[in-house]
Amino acid sequence: MSANDAESVLAYVERKGERYRVTWVRGGRSAVSFESLDDILRAAAARVNAETSRRRKPVTIAHRPPLAAI
Q: Is 4 helix (H, G, I), strand (E, B) or coil?
């Protein structure tokens, strides 16, 4: 995915006084408040890791022949 692609946007961050308000664009449109940018980056990394872990191929299940074939 290109860095200029709108799909690459993970969140919108806005500073509100001493805190940061984050609206997650990918993975649900929820808004959360954080105390520091480091906290935001940790949460973003966790979201990206969760997305990539779900994008794997499914685990194949061992196949057994039908009983009639035995």
A: coil
34, 22 in Cβ contact below 8 A?
yes
Give pTM, 2 decimals.
0.61
- Ramachandran angles phi, psi of 29, nearest 5°: -95, 60
- What is the side-by-side order of every strand in the sheet holding 11-16? 11-16, 19-24, 31-34
Whole-angstrom distance, CA of residue 10 vs CA of residue 48: 9
Of residues 28 and 15, the one with the higher pLDDT is 15
Using CA of residue 38, residue 44, residue 49, residue 50, what is the dihedral sign?
positive
